[in-house]
């Protein structure tokens, strides 16, 4: 059975997955790059980077993935919907290399980029979006790419099979929280924690099969 | 120099240090005993318990401590101030064995219990309370014992030298949060994380001396 997976999703110790305000100049607001510095230091990101536990987790990002689902605020800064020339943050060759389904209340025609990435803009419930992505993934897994609002919605709907979180030891104080409204969600998962020498903690939630 | 320390302070993955509502029957509300099960399983709590990393951390609780400061809601359930016979949750021989300063807006006369514990009820700012506790501690360290409101106030006032947190992989969803209003507080500390085989993660914040 294909799985629905989340990878390299980084949160602060106080549970924020982005700072504020989100803008063209600062996609993560006052968080800057602090939530992903652990990843920039790995081989996954930089050939001269580290090859330890952070890298092992980071590399899972693309393995066996056939489509991604992302939220509107991950695709662009506030107001991107009014800019017909906006094609995402990632330039000509986005790092997805699969169909990507962008959830938005203001859909537009699909956008084909280099390297196998096509953005489809859809207004759909989480389970409808997952069906569309699973069909496009053709037997491979679907990644839910964020941001926190979309991850939270998919967790609340019980649609996630595997969640890899990276807890960074900073206190952002404000931004968008991952955990709101998810009381008891851990009961459906086996949870494992690993502290990395880099200072982050990797948490994996694997859906129970019993 | 004596230090101000916090030990065995347990929070859920979403940052709650207690559930709700707090009551005589359920001091931690809907959290029940889930935040401290890791501790009940150690030798610190139970002679037949484990003696690994959880126990090593737990045992630091009393080492070199000469006084404790706690909040009113740790001392008793809502309304304890109206009950003259309330002497705390801990019976005749509380586990503190030092003077304990209970912060409350409704002070009452001091209460001497067995085993060296005396409860002093004071209305004071965090730094005033710390001065009183340091004097009583006679050169030893002062422990800030919780709850989350008091821990947060002491962190915000920059009065904490050592903070040991235990992150339990459950999502409480509601209760009293530890982290509100503490943006950037980690900048004054070296932060270390250790995952325990029991499933919890120990986080230590040690005040930077530079
Ligand atoms: N920490 C990490 O690892 C990580 C990972 C990915 C992204 N991020 C960051 O997270 C931030 C974005 O997260 P976010 O929580 O603000 O937003 P988001 O989850 O990216 O997007 C939420 C938006 O998507 C649209 N949407 C969601 N569900 C929909 C549905 N069922 N139907 C139609 N539209 C739907 C809505 O936008 P409209 O109403 O405008 O259409 C909604 O406001 C960015 O800063 C990004 O960089 C962080
Ligand atoms: N997770 C853990 O490891 C841990 C550790 C300890 C306790 N707890 C739990 O935490 C809960 C209590 O925490 P909480 O955040 O609700 O309350 P708390 O921190 O124990 O107490 C807060 C109360 O103390 C009094 N207070 C605080 N500062 C004061 C000051 N400067 N001057 C005078 N009074 C002051 C006020 O009460 P009044 O206005 O009523 O006087 C205030 O409402 C309990 O459920 C307890 O079991 C958890």
Q: What does this entry look like structurally?
A:
The structure is a homodimer of 210-residue chains. Chain A is an alpha/beta fold and 210 residues long. Chain A has a single domain, classed as 3-Layer(aba) Sandwich (Dihydrofolate Reductase, subunit A). Helices cover 17% and strands 29% of the residues of chain A. The first copy, chain A, has a 9-stranded mixed sheet, sandwiched between helices. The longest helix of chain A has 12 residues. Chain A is globular and about 45 Å long. The mean pLDDT of chain A is 97. The complex binds NADP nicotinamide-adenine-dinucleotide phosphate (2 copies). One NADP nicotinamide-adenine-dinucleotide phosphate binds next to strand 1, strand 2, helix 3, strand 7 and helix 5 of chain A.
Quaternary organisation = homodimer
Distance between the termini of chain A: 15 Å
Which structural class should the secondary elements of chain A be placed in?
alpha/beta
Q: Whole-number radius of gyration of chain A? A: 16 Å
* Domain tally of chain A: 1
Low-confidence residue ranges of chain A: none
CATH evolutionary superfamily of chain A = Dihydrofolate Reductase, subunit A
């Amino acid at each position: 059975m294909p799985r629905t997976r989340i990878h390299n999703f980084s949160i602060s110790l106080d549970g924020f997955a982005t700072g504020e305000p989100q803008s063209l100049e600062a996609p993560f607001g006052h968080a800057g790059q602090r939530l992903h510095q652990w990843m920039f230091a790995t081989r996954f990101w930089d050939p001269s980077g580290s090859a330890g536990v952070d890298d092992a987790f980071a590399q899972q990002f693309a393995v066996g993935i056939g489509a991604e689902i992302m939220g509107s605020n991950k695709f662009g800064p506030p107001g991107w919907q009014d800019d017909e020339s906006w094609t995402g943050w990632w330039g000509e060759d986005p790092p997805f290399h699969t169909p990507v389904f962008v959830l938005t209340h203001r859909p537009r025609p699909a956008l084909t980029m280099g390297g196998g990435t096509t953005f489809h803009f859809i207004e759909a419930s989480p389970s409808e979006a997952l069906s569309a992505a699973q069909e496009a993934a053709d037997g491979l897994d679907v990644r839910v790419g964020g941001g926190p609002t979309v991850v939270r919605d998919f967790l609340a709907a019980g649609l996630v099979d595997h969640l890899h979180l990276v807890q960074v030891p900073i206190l952002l104080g404000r931004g968008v929280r991952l955990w709101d409204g998810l009381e008891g969600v851990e009961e459906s998962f086996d949870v494992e924690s690993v502290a990395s020498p880099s200072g982050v903690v990797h948490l994996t939630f694997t859906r129970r099969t019993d």
